[in-house]
Amino acid sequence: MRLPRDIDASDLIKAIRYFGYETTRQTGSHIKLTTQQNGQHHLTIPNHDPIKIGTLQAIVTEVAQHAGLSKEEVIVRLY
């Protein structure tokens, strides 16, 4: 499945809450999210519109590794 090309930070944050991530702080244009599921894990998401595809791919990969899922499973659950 393909990643969406036009997703912004607020949409990604709403979608990623499915995996237990909550916003913990924001510094400038970067938003830090943390989850306690499967151990503590942090993500940093740039507050851009749209998020570059390489950055989005890296975020999905990081979530997949932490959750123990494939990238395709994460994409399906997010979108």
Structural features, described:
The chain is of the alpha+beta class and 79 residues long. The chain has one domain (9-78): Hypothetical protein (Metal Transport, Frataxin, Chain A, 2-Layer Sandwich), CATH 3.30.920. Helices cover 39% and strands 23% of the residues. It has 3 helices and 3 strands, in the order αβββαα. A 3-stranded antiparallel beta sheet has the order 1-2-3. Helix 2 (53-67) crosses helix 3 (71-78). The longest helix has 15 residues, at 53-67. The model has no long low-confidence stretch (mean pLDDT 92).
Keywords:
about 80 residues, alpha+beta, Metal Transport, Frataxin, Chain A, 3 helices, globular
In brief, what are we looking at here?
With 79 residues, the protein is of the alpha+beta class. The protein is built from three helices and three strands, in the order αβββαα.
Mean pLDDT: 92
Task: Give me the CATH fold name.
Answer: Metal Transport, Frataxin, Chain A
- Biggest sheet statistics: 3 strands, antiparallel
Please identify, by name, the CATH architecture: 2-Layer Sandwich
Low-confidence stretches: none
Instruction: Note the overall shape.
Output: globular
Number of helices: 3
How are the strands of the largest sheet arranged?
1-2-3
Beta-strand segment tally: 3
- Please give the CATH class: Alpha Beta
- The percentage of residues in β strands lies in 15-25%
CATH superfamily membership? Hypothetical protein
Rg result = 12 Å
How many domains would you count in the coordinates? Answer: 1
Structural class: alpha+beta
| Terminal Cα span | 10 Å
Percent range of helical residues? 25-40%
Order of helices and strands: HEEEHH
